[in-house]
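Technical appendix A lists one of the benchmark inputs used to test multi-chain prediction within the project. The record comprises three sequence entries:
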Amino acid sequence: MPELPEVETCRRIVESELAGLTVVRTEVRLPKLLRFSEIPSLQAIEGRQVLGARRRAKLMIVDFSGDLTLIIHFKLAGQLSVHRPTGRRITAGHPVPNPDGPYPHKSTHIDILFDDGSIAYLSDIRQFGWLRLMPSDRVDAEIAAYAFGPEAFGNERITPEQLRRSLLRRSIPVKLALLDQGLVAGIGNIYADEALHRARIHPGTPANLLSKPATARLWEGIGWALERGIEQGGASIVHQKAYPVDGFPAVHGREQEACPVCGTPIKKITVGTRGAYYCPRCQKKRTRAHPAAKPAPESPG
DNA sequence: TGCGTTGTTTCACC
DNA sequence: CGGTGAAACAACGC
């Protein structure tokens, strides 16, 4: 499920593997993926050079020469796989189809062929993702329409103060607040669970009841989880089951497995409409340091 | 085979 | 007007 770390990994792949190359041919077997696209065909990028790639929230933004820009949303199951003429493959996003198997695959809907023989394959087993090709000067307005909040990671990253202010204005479960792209942009279900576990916060805690130290831990937890995810090139979750690397993810997709911190079996509950994995021992529903240690009644006057 | 899955949008309701 | 919660939607695998 491509969230910020998976999309960021894709972005880096485009930057390091494709920037400078020229598109010689495109193959679109599922035109529906371009259903929201101002320019309805990828033919317009043939003959154009890849200039670079940006990211905003979970969107990947690829700039081409000739003032064309392609915005990609991977949604649940998008995948980018770049195949070099040497046979080397670099893959990120959803782990299905198997990156080591044959391409194009049944779910590989788009091929982009480059002048050096490299091919970029875009796959999407769920077909929920989309691509929008447009003149580059439309991109800012396109992104502005999403009303994204500050980034969860990177240069424009949300500050601890911004996070605290935003959370104080919401009474919804903190996990849902983290998923609100208008509050902070880029976090999805996996990294929300991981950040909350790292911060030792119960996912159902009303956002405005988090203590200041808890909010500070959460801010750090967000950064830690996203960084860890990027470091690993994204998390691998297949059919709600995690395939952790070095103990990460710690809780998401790991129901009944032992919490890596305390060994307690991980629980799965529903928060809002979302599955939430957490450790019932590390993440208790208390955020005030000492709820009972408040004996001093105020004198009436 | 109906259910679960996610990001996003929409809508009724305070 | 804005926050909330619920539902709908896309398509697929199990």
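Chain A has two domains: 4-144, 160-278. Residues 160-278 of chain A form a domain with the Helicase, Ruva Protein; domain 3 fold (CATH 1.10.8.50). Comparable benchmark entries are summarised in Table A2.
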